[in-house]
Amino acid sequence: MTDTRDQFHRLFGEIYLPVLVTVGAIVVLVILFAAIRYRRGSGRGPGGPTERPVFESLYAVTIAAIVAALVWATFTAEAKVDEVSKTPGLRVDVTAFKWQWRFDYPDQGVRASIGTDSHHAELVVPEDTVVGFRMTSRDVIHALWIPAVRFKRDAFPNRFTSFDLVFDTPGTFPGRCAEFCGLEHAGMTLEVHVLRKPAFDAWLAARRR
To answer: Phi-psi category of 168—alpha, beta or left, where left has phi over 0 and alpha has psi -120 to 50?
Structure first.
């Protein structure tokens, strides 16, 4: 996967939107037909209900098939988002705590990036590289949210959550905690720096020194 944007666009643009437009058009056409066809009363009282088991059964089966297809497509997209590589290009350990973040690079031998009251934590990653994350919380439930890649994942105490992300655009992007975690929740922010590979290697070398 590149990031959750790809799966979201595919799921919404190729499946949900056509279904929404089709169903909406059918509903509008039925309403217009009923309004035009029965716009004038015939002078007779309303008729009683009529039973059409075949039509009603087809209607119910069609709705069930649409719902089943949407559920299948949604869970398929979610499985792709949750898929984790066994050999990511970079591993990052994420620790959430009141009210900051800590990013460790266990295979690189560099100092961790830890947020403080005066300086936000910085997540530095290379461009177009599978980054494998392992995340936990030191106290309460937090949530890592990076709007630029439409990604949000909860961080739980005493549990590790694994996920992969690929950042395909160099730049600096904001992130924050998306789970209310206490009085200073609003200040629990971070910055994501996506660097080209040579720049990232230089950052690692400087960090080692």
So the answer is: alpha
Same domain as 170, residue 148: yes
Whether the pLDDT of residue 146 is over 80: the answer is: yes
More confident residue, 83 or 168: 168
Q: Which domain holds residue 128?
A: 90-208
Give the pLDDT of residue 86: 84
Q: Are residues 68 and 132 in the same domain?
A: no
Q: What is the pTM of this model?
A: 0.71
Asked if 59 and 94 sit in the same domain, the reply is no
Pairing mode, strands 113-114 and 161-166: unpaired
> Cα(120)–Cα(206) distance, rounded to whole angstroms?
19
Which strand ranges, in their side-by-side order, compose the sheet holding 189-195?
A: 121-126, 189-195, 171-177, 142-146, 151-155
Give the model's pLDDT for residue 99: 92
